[in-house]
Design brief:
- The chain is mostly helical.
- Helix content is 88%, strand content 0%.
- The protein is rod-shaped.
């Protein structure tokens, strides 16, 4: 999955999951399905993707310095 596709998926999850977790009816259902953990994992993976992108950029810029 590309970074753009992943970011779209994360944005959709960020828009829906917190509201559903706060709902008195859907909250327990979402927690039972592990959606709170899924959202945390998506956020962590996005941070990792950003770090890798920064590392690639730094490596690319360093190649011009040599």
């Amino acid at each position: 999955m590309s970074d753009a596709e992943f970011k779209w998926r994360l944005d959709m999850a960020e828009m829906c999951i917190p509201n559903l977790l706060d709902d008195p009816h859907y909250g327990p259902i979402m927690r039972r399905k592990g959606r709170d953990v899924e959202l945390a994992e998506l956020r962590a993976e996005w941070r990792e993707r950003q770090e890798r992108a920064r590392a690639r950029k730094l490596k690319y810029e360093a190649s011009f310095a040599d």
